[in-house]
Amino acid sequence: MSKTVEFFFDLGSPATYLAHTQLPKICKQTDSQLIYRPMLLGGIFKATGNVSPITVPAKGRYMFQDLDRYAKRYGVPLKFNPNFPINTLMLMRAVTGMQLHHPERFQAFIDCLFHALWVEGCSLDDPATVAAVLTQNGFDPNEVLALTADEAVKATLKENTEEAVQRGVFGAPSMFVGDQLFFGQDRLDFVLEALRTQ
Fold first, then answer.
1. pLDDT exceeds cutoff 80 at 1
2. Which residue of 11, 47, 134, 173 has the fewest CB atoms within a 10 Å radius of its CB?
3. Going from the N-terminus, what domains does the chain have, and what CATH number goes with each?
4. Average pLDDT for residues 94-113, to the nearest whole number?
């Protein structure tokens, strides 16, 4: 399997959640491998001068209406999280830690966090809520918390974020097929096309 999609993502982006629901299907259709690349969206914004669409009220309102349209098209649930925007530093360190140290549980881990954020509308910048979500999904909150303090985990997340900036990423979700960058879950048709012609 030589065809790959690199998926630079941050859990705190609802558009990234939608891409997450569709990319495995696209990769299955094209016999491609999906490579998850956790990054810190706040770091991307800081490095590139970009900001969340929510900072422009009219744009923010439109964005959620548009995402709702796509959710209906994809046939997946989506709920506006009242706690948005969410500080995802600890979450993304946890995601990176699971990928590094428990790859066999990585998919289930991000699935449960995406679901908690964008289907249940949970406040995942609240440690007690995070602990409850993890426990309900069969993860040990203390073990996950320990991963977020691991220096190798912190360094990997920082390196991923820096690499993303160097490769032209300015927001999430960002996907690479070879050297081609595709930004936004509304560009998945181009990702599919690139994989079919790769």
1. no
2. 47
3. 4-197 (3.40.30.10)
4. 98
Give dist(CA 113, CA 96) in Å, integer: 13
Q: Does residue 2 have an active-site annotation?
A: no
Question: What pTM does this model have?
Answer: 0.96
Considering the candidates 13, 32, 52, 123, report the single residue annotated as catalytic: 13
Answer for the pair 7, 170: CB distance below 8 angstroms, yes or no: no
